[in-house]
Amino acid sequence: MDSSLSIRHVVIVPDGNRRFAKKKRKLASWGHVAGAKAMENILRAALDLELPYLTIWGSSVSNIIERNASEVKVLLEIFERYFKRLGAQPELQKNDVRVRILGRWEELFPEKVKKPMRDLIEKTSKHSRRNLTFLMAYSGVDEILAAISNITEMKKENQKLSVSGELVKKNLWSAELPPVDLVIRTGGEPHWSAGLMMWDVAESQLAFTETLWPEFSAKEFKQIIKEKSEIEQRFGR
User: Fold this and answer.
1) 15 noted as active-site residue
2) Best CA proximity match to 64, nearest among 159, 123, 138, 8
3) Which of 24, 54, 128, 198 has the highest Cβ tally under 10 A?
4) How far apart are CA 196 and CA 105, in angstroms?
5) In what order do the strands lie in the sheet with 130-135?
6) Per-residue pLDDT for 172 more than 90?
7) C-alpha to C-alpha distance for 105 and 65, rounded to whole angstroms
8) Which has the closest alpha carbon to 226: 205, 212, 211?
9) 3-state secondary structure the chain
10) Residue 119 among the catalytic residues
11) Are the beta carbons of 99 and 133 closer than 8 angstroms?
12) Class for domain 9-139+179-231, per CATH?
């Protein structure tokens, strides 16, 4: 990693696909395709920076169960193509990138979409130098509730069990990931999404940009990380 960058774990909320499509007088599905292309550029930029951990918000639970059926169908088709293409990228092997996919996708996605996702997880499971995580059919509320449920069952088995922050972390879907240093949200609407990694973002820096996701460039991505790294170095945690 660039020694001038103190940030190790970046989360991106790529907002603005549908508004970008509207601006271009295109269908929402066109915006989602453009967003997938933008994702490829940002992943290459993260490799250039040698960023150890990058987490991408792919879809919320509500994106899958509440949007109209035609848009969800297109989204799932994009996910299927995207993960197949990502799995074929030699950069994953070359850069020793491990891919994780967190959320309720196993429950909510069709089998033809889940297969390339599972294949990608398995193919990269032994990698350890870099880490790429996707949040798919994700809800931070679901993640916390799942951890509470696990700990409740553990407590039934061992009444003397001490509930600590460490124990909570071990029972999160993100158990293998470090705290989040920086959250970047594109699209110009500075709000949170479905309890995004609420345990892990307790001390995160936040960056909100007006840029719609399909227009978010590698240059802007790198500049945000550089600026936030300088703040991190000045003030620490």
Assistant:
1) yes
2) 138
3) 54
4) 16
5) 97-102, 130-135, 53-57, 9-13, 182-185, 205-208
6) yes
7) 11
8) 205
9) CCCCCCCCEEEEECCCHHHHHHHCCCCHHHHHHHHHHHHHHHHHHHHHHCCCEEEEECCEHHHHHCCCHHHHHHHHHHHHHHHHHHHCCHHHHHCCEEEEEECCHHHHCCHHHHHHHHHHHHHCCCCCCEEEEEECCECHHHHHHHHHHHHHHHHHHCCCCCCCHHHHHHCCCCCCCCCCCEEEECCCCCCCCCCCCCCCCCCCEEEECCCCHHHCCHHHHHHHHHHHHHHHHHHCC
10) no
11) yes
12) alpha beta
For the beta carbon of residue 93, count every other beta carbon within 10 angstroms.
11
Tokens standing for residue 224 = 């945000």
* pLDDT tens-digit map of 185-213: 999 998 898 999 999 999 999 999 999 99
| Catalytic-role residue among 15, 17, 181, 200 | 15
Q: Are 16 and 212 in contact (CB under 8 A)?
A: yes
Length reported for the chain: 237
What are the pLDDT digits (tens) for 110-162? Answer: 999 999 999 999 999 999 999 999 999 999 999 999 999 999 999 999 999 99
Tell me how far apart the alpha carbons of residues 2 and 90 are, in angstroms, rounded to a whole number.
22
* Amino acid sitting at position 140: G
103, amino acid identity: G
Active-site position among 2, 17, 48, 63: 63
Question: At which residue do the structure tokens 């997880």 appear?
Answer: 121
